[in-house]
Amino acid sequence: MNIHTYEKLWLVAAMLLIVTFIATITYGSVGLGIAMVGDQQPTVEPTELSDDERFGDPRVEQVGENEYEAYVVAQTFRYQPDPIEVPEDSQVTFYVTARDVIHSFSIVGTNVNTMAIPGEIAEMTVEFDEVGEYGVVCNEYCGPGHHDMEGELHVVP
Ligand code: CUA
């Protein structure tokens, strides 16, 4: 083997590494239960949220024995529903969108933190084991009321 062949091998190895790296970033979040924004998202027409079957009536819905779905709308400068009420020992899949501008949906003290983007639906599944109360805050600057944009999440017995 001459030097030239080694160089080619390294090039191939480097390419493989890059491809693996990109694949990890792209598909790494699948199966972890928390979907990142940037995954392929279902979309929703922001101007027609009121007529949308899910977001026209923001709510928590039971879909299985301990499984719930929460449809959350972020808008200047509040969340709907508020408070969000879920039972303890539940698994909740949040679907979050925004009505007007970009907000975030961040549950204080947890790693739940997603952007809420008009037209996009962020999805994440969270388990709530214990009764408690959490604050929901917006981490994306969205206007003069941004710092007061707060909601509550209650995990009830
Ligand atoms: Cu909504 Cu900042």
TrEMBL record:
<keyword id="KW-0472">Membrane</keyword>
<feature type="transmembrane region" description="Helical">
    <location>
        <begin position="9"/>
        <end position="37"/>
    </location>
</feature>
<keyword id="KW-0812">Transmembrane</keyword>
<protein>
    <submittedName>
        <fullName>Cytochrome C oxidase subunit II</fullName>
    </submittedName>
</protein>
<keyword id="KW-0186">Copper</keyword>
<keyword id="KW-0479">Metal-binding</keyword>
<dbReference type="GO" id="GO:0016020">
    <property type="term" value="C:membrane"/>
</dbReference>
<dbReference type="GO" id="GO:0004129">
    <property type="term" value="F:cytochrome-c oxidase activity"/>
</dbReference>
<feature type="domain" description="Cytochrome oxidase subunit II copper A binding">
    <location>
        <begin position="65"/>
        <end position="157"/>
    </location>
</feature>
<dbReference type="GO" id="GO:0005507">
    <property type="term" value="F:copper ion binding"/>
</dbReference>
<keyword id="KW-1133">Transmembrane helix</keyword>
